[in-house]
């Protein structure tokens, strides 16, 4: 088939199915919904943190490891509009201020965990109930969520916690009493436990 004939057929098909193509494109655009993400920076005794939130609640807390752009790229939600704003974080910053002063704080917050799996969310919810001064091993945490043999998967879910400090994954330790791991590093984990009056 020569080029002219191919072009003629292509134009014919585009003309005939133009309306259908437009409708399908609109459906695809509608499916890719853009989430508004608010973000800010927060200076703490353990270094500068970045905080992100959606209209549903807090989305992510992470230490400054590079540029602001690297934090935004690593956010767990795609297709978003970014808004730099302090307003969504005023209350949680007040609570964090008290925490870093060594005052006992039971964090009150809304969280957007829509990006987590059902298993991860069950681990994060259980972690949220750990009070200052309370410690738990990965094995006990696995039993608490009804998955006693899934302690390795629990460890991975703990490591994927998007809201360290306020969902206190730093209070989870290994069964032998050692600190275990921490996404922000063992040095920071020791510092957080020290703030809470726990020396390990």
Q: Would you kindly provide a written description of the structure presented here, covering whatever features stand out?
A:
The protein is α/β, with parallel strands linked by helices and 200 residues long. It folds into 2 domains: 1-32; 35-195, Winged helix-like DNA-binding domain superfamily/Winged helix DNA-binding domain (Arc Repressor Mutant, subunit A, Orthogonal Bundle), CATH 1.10.10. Helix content is 41%, strand content 17%. The protein contains 8 helices and 6 strands, in the order ααβββαβααβααβα. A 4-stranded mixed β-sheet has the order 3-2-1-4, with helices on one face. The protein has a two-stranded parallel sheet with strand order 5-6. The longest helix is centred in the N-terminal third of the chain and has 14 residues, at 3-16.
Keywords:
200 residues; alpha/beta; Arc Repressor Mutant, subunit A; two-stranded parallel sheet; 8 helices; 6 strands; globular
């Amino acid at each position: 088939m020569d080029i002219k004939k191919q072009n003629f057929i292509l134009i014919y098909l585009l003309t005939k199915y133009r309306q259908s193509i437009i409708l399908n494109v609109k459906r695809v655009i509608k499916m890719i919904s853009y989430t508004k993400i608010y973000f800010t920076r927060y200076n703490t005794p353990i270094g500068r943190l970045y905080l992100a939130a959606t209209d549903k609640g807090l989305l992510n807390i992470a230490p400054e490891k590079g540029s602001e752009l690297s934090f935004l790229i690593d956010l767990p939600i795609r297709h978003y509009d970014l808004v730099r704003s302090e307003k969504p974080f005023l209350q949680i910053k007040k609570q964090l201020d008290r925490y870093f002063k060594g005052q006992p704080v039971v964090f009150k917050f809304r969280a957007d965990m829509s990006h987590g799996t059902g298993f991860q969310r069950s681990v994060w919810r259980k972690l949220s109930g750990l009070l200052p001064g309370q410690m738990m091993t990965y094995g006990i945490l696995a039993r608490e969520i009804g998955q006693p043999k899934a302690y390795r998967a629990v460890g991975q879910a703990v490591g994927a916690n998007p809201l360290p400090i306020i969902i206190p994954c730093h209070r989870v330790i290994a069964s032998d009493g050692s600190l275990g791991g921490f996404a922000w590093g063992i040095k920071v984990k020791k510092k957080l436990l020290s703030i809470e009056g726990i020396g390990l």
